[in-house]
Amino acid sequence: GESVGLHLPTLSVQEGDNSIINCAYSNSASDYFIWYKQESGKGPQFIIDIRSNMDKRQGQRVTVLLNKTVKHLSLQIAATQPGDSAVYFCAENEGTSYDKVIFGPGTSLSVIP
Amino acid sequence: AAGVIQSPRHLIKEKRETATLKCYPIPRHDTVYWYQQGPGQDPQFLISFYEKMQSDKGSIPDRFSAQQFSDYHSELNMSSLELGDSALYFCASSSRLVGRPDTQYFGPGTRLTVL
Prior knowledge:
The complex is a heterodimer of chains A (113) and B (115). Chain A has 113 residues and is mainly β. In chain A, 0% of the residues lie in helices and 54% in strands. Chain A contains no helices and 11 strands. In chain B, strands 2, 4, 5, 6, 9, 10 and 11 form a 7-stranded mixed sheet that branches. In chain B, strands 1-3-8-7 form a 4-stranded antiparallel sheet, with no helix packed on it. At the A-B interface, strand 4, strand 5 and strand 10 of A face strand 5 and strand 10 of B.
């Protein structure tokens, strides 16, 4: 079935550098995407979302880019800090249901001090 | 700010036993969602409730049932537990928006271990 998936399972970055986490999705009908951060032993934490009528959205130190042509989503973290170390999930909200959030496999981000 | 509360945080059960997980949504949130996350896996949507009615259903086994009560808290009941049910169970809550997806806020999870 259609799903959301991530390109890389792990990512290591130097503290202070920018991080880019990528995600590919296959459901062309998806119209809402979310990035979650999950620290060890905790629940997923909402970071930022974007609807399909946008191609970029910025938050505090984070930017999400959406390329509908190639069905690609990315999360950019500026000036990565040790506290950013976590597993990051991109998730897709199915167009037929506002409830069902489909998570892709996570990317583990490690920040090197 | 108040967050989603889940209890218990840890639960150990034997095979074929039953378990009940509880979720208390953020105040004024009317929708709750349940997810299951196996070791090293992404969370899988199980079921959701809006205003005490089942709203959507995902990959929830027939051995599991859930409900939302008048105070909006929800309980996930799991019977005939199997080893494969060992996982983290997350509850999320949201305030239903008309015509657009809600932002779901997750609780800390209940870690269920079936022996």
